[in-house]
Amino acid sequence: MRITEQLKYSIIGLAVLTAGVTIFENFRTQEGEFDGSMVNKTGFVRAAAQRLIKLETNGQSNDKLIAEIDTYIDGLINGSEELKLHKQKDPAFINAINEVDADWTVLKEDILEYRRDPSQKTQLIKDSEIFFEDANEVAQVAEDITVSHIREVSNTQLAFLVFDVAGLGFILWLVLRTSRLLQTSIASVADSSSDIAATVEAQEQAVTEQTSSVTQTTSTIEDLGAASLQAAQKADTSATGAREALNLSETGSQAVENTVQEIEELQSKVGAIADQIMQLSEQTDQISIISNLVADVADQTNMLALNAAVEAARAGEQGKGFAVVAGEIRKLADQSRDSASKIGTLVDAIQSSINSTVMVTDEGTKTAKAGIETAKDTANVFNQIAEAINEVYNNSQQIAQTAKRQAVGVQQAVSAMNTINLGAKETVSAVGKVQDSTETLQTIAKELQVAI
After folding, report:
1. Could you tell me the residue ranges of all domains in the chain?
2. Which backbone phi and psi does 80 adopt, to 5 degrees?
3. Which CATH class is domain 3-181?
4. Yes or no: is domain 189-451 CATH 1.10.287?
5. What is the Cα 286 distance to its own chain's centre?
6. Would the CA dihedral through 21, 24, 30, 36 be positive or negative?
7. Do residues 316 and 185 make contact, with C-beta atoms less than 8 angstroms apart?
8. How do residues 299-309 score in pLDDT, each as one tens digit?
9. Following CA atoms 108, 114, 119, 123 in sequence, which dihedral angle do they give, to the nearest 10 degrees?
10. Looking at the predicted structure, is the pLDDT value of residue 28 above 60?
11. What pLDDT shows up at residue 341?
12. pTM above 0.70, yes or no
């Protein structure tokens, strides 16, 4: 059973015991009042009977006093709420009061006989002496009963006192034990808080570096998007030139030279496109490297969050709030890792598209060279030139569409990097809150160490 439960049950038991003592004391106080009333009434019966005999022997009858004695004797035998008398269960008292009642019956008959015949005074005095002796015995028994009850109350109070002292001693022992445990726990919390603070500081530095890396990656991807747009524009320009060359090939042999020039220009532009695509390939390689870096940082963040959660678990109840924050940091790290994975997938798709574009560009270059050679050899191959130029036109359209798709993919990558950047900022904010909570925990631990 935990100390707090032991302390709670001990206090409850002590409270119940105190309530029981209070109820018992109230009950015994009422019993004491009835015991006192019993002693008082037995004494009154004896004194009243003595007074009655004196009045009768002096010729002063007092029936009211006789009725009062009857009432008191009946109350002593049967109990009376009005006279505050219980019906006694003590055998000695019952026997004694029954003898007094019998003596009183005889004495009342003697009084009536004496009133009719004063010569019966001797018998009256004799029977009154017997009544007085029995009344004294009843009074003595009543006193003995009262003394016995007082002793019982005293013994019971002593027992209650022993239980109270034992309960208070147990509670004091629990308090001292709890104080020692609290001091030990507070020292552990203070040490854990220092470790957590160091961990959080290192994590904050790592997240800051992650934010800087994400910003650089975003800038690189934006440059890649601009290059993709330029490639698309140049591909459109190539398609326009091919269409013009196709129209010029129909004008005759004079247009052959112009066609050759246009094809050479096309070759030059295709070479420029190839250079741009190679640059785009290098940039996508950089994105892949940065994406792997982001994944590594996310793994480090996840590990730091796991360590923080372990420290929070060691901190107990005081570390629950920090455990929630550590969980949120792990979620952000998982999101960063997922985003990095998505970027890697996008980079692979872009690289594949670039490879396709390079192949198409090489093919266009070869076709352009073949068209130049054919145009220089003869003007009779206009149809072949037209077909070659038409093929170049189609390839240029494919290049434009591929470049546009690359631009869309790059835009998605930019959006993903912005999401990573936002998550990193939220992580920095959460780490700041964790650091504040850790400082507060350290302050509380120090205050508790001083207070306990």
Report:
1. 3-181, 189-451
2. -160, 120
3. mainly alpha
4. yes
5. 45
6. negative
7. yes
8. 888 888 888 88
9. 10
10. no
11. 87
12. no
